[in-house]
Prior knowledge:
Bound molecules: flavin-adenine dinucleotide
Distance between the termini: 37 Å
CATH topology of the largest domain: FAD/NAD(P)-binding domain
Amino acid sequence: MADSPLPDFSKGHALADIPDNGVVAGKIGDDEVLLGRRGEQVFAIGAHCTHYHGPLAKGLVVGDTIRCPWHHACFSMTTGEPLRAPALDPIDCYDVEHKGDRVFVKGKRAAAPKQTPPVSPESIVIVGGGPAGLAAADMLRRHGYLGPITMLSADEAPPSDRPNLSKEYLAGTAQESWIPLKGDDYFADQKIDLVLNTRVASIDVDQRRVQLENGHGYPYGALLLATGADPVHLTIPGAAAGDVLFLRTLADCNAIIARAASAKRALVIGASFIGLEVAASLRERKLDVHVVAPETQPLERVLDTDLGKMIRGVHEQHGVTFHLGAKVERVDERKVVLSDGTTIADVDFIVAGVGVRPSIALAEQAGLTMDRGVSVNEFLETSEPGVFAAGDLARWPDPHSGERIRVEHFVVAERQGQAAAKNMLGLREPFDLVPFFWSQHYDVTVNYVGHAEKWDKVDVDGDLEGQDCTVTYRQGGRVLAVATVGRDKASLEAEARMEGNLK
Length: 503
Ligand SMILES: Cc1cc2nc3c(=O)[nH]c(=O)nc-3n(C[C@H](O)[C@H](O)[C@H](O)COP(=O)(O)OP(=O)(O)OC[C@H]3O[C@@H](n4cnc5c(N)ncnc54)[C@H](O)[C@@H]3O)c2cc1C
């Protein structure tokens, strides 16, 4: 049955037909628009998330914000501002006119002028060109910081959409143009001095200066450390260095794609999120894929056994062969020998996805307080005033779990970059957002909110095998985390509940 045409909001819409704390879809000219209501206040906004074009109509309205069902970006419905990453660009906002019991959507509203920040460091240096660094630079400019921003990155590519590197881009279904987090002109337009292929060698916190490996130095008024994490590198007896590949950067991904082009069989070490996503993407490229990992079920340490088993089943249905409870012992030409005696012949290349380690060498050298990562307070400030840390390397006090935690999630890295930026400008905003990540396996996506390193009870609601379920992880009766499959809105609701914004 064909979809009924969207109502034209320029012709008016009955106020009573706009759900309170919900939205209704329509259009203005060619633009898809949502009308939302909170009591007597009516909002008209663009219908799609600016991150991956997710359908906001299927998201969640919380107060005067709307959250995207796909990757939990959050927008103000009053201003269109992207309040929380992963969206970095605003949605459109439209003026609304009330006439009697109807509302009429008018033209697009101009962006609000930028405020002057309470504090304005003389200069800001960001070490790291990943999502945390980029989101910080972006937030500094959005909050009216006019001083110099320098972003120093050891990567050869500008800040990249790393999650896509194990998913569509590796599978061959996304263009390389999807990968940069910001377009070509962004850095020049925003006067952000992005310096690529550049490694910072040391930080002098007394002199407030970073020193590059190439001898150059930069003074800073405030500093953000966002050096992220590096993949753990394995050496496998018998394997030539170039036959074991790792995945962190666009260059790493292109190296895997180049090897896949002429390969028939790949072996993935590690049944973690990245290992499994790589397996899925290589299957999409029609390679024969074997996964070797020591655990008994993939992902059981993070998602528990049942959900891990379901995801394993999805991969097996797509033709992945698992060798669990085993490790790679050695490589003999193209034959891989496992610890349980199994041999896998004709392996063209290996991808190792065996975890990452936070890149903390600089922080250690600078004398910052460490705690299995860089220790930060609720404002993401390190033990050194004026030096902040965000992203994969930072361990922060998480009010939801009551623990000091460090995670390796894209959205958390960006949101911490945003919070650190605001705090550099004196806005004193504690980072108290609920951690969120997603992982994609073929057409099955797992959304996860919260943080549970251990749990004493797991409840599964719904149909695991039917890929329509909510899995709740509890400790002492308290909900620590919720994973969902096929229930995007339930994931948003769980997040809002953990924030205390939903009953
Ligand atoms: C293939 C892949 C898929 C992923 N998929 C997901 C997913 O689906 N969902 C999810 O939530 N997360 C995912 N992640 C994790 C997510 O990408 C990371 O959590 C995120 O990138 C961390 O951001 P960051 O800015 O802290 O660090 P990074 O992205 O690691 O960036 C660190 C930056 O610091 C630079 N750097 C390091 N040392 C120096 C130095 N001394 N001098 C100068 N620069 C330096 C690096 O060059 C880099 O630019 C994925 C990661 C990868 C690699």
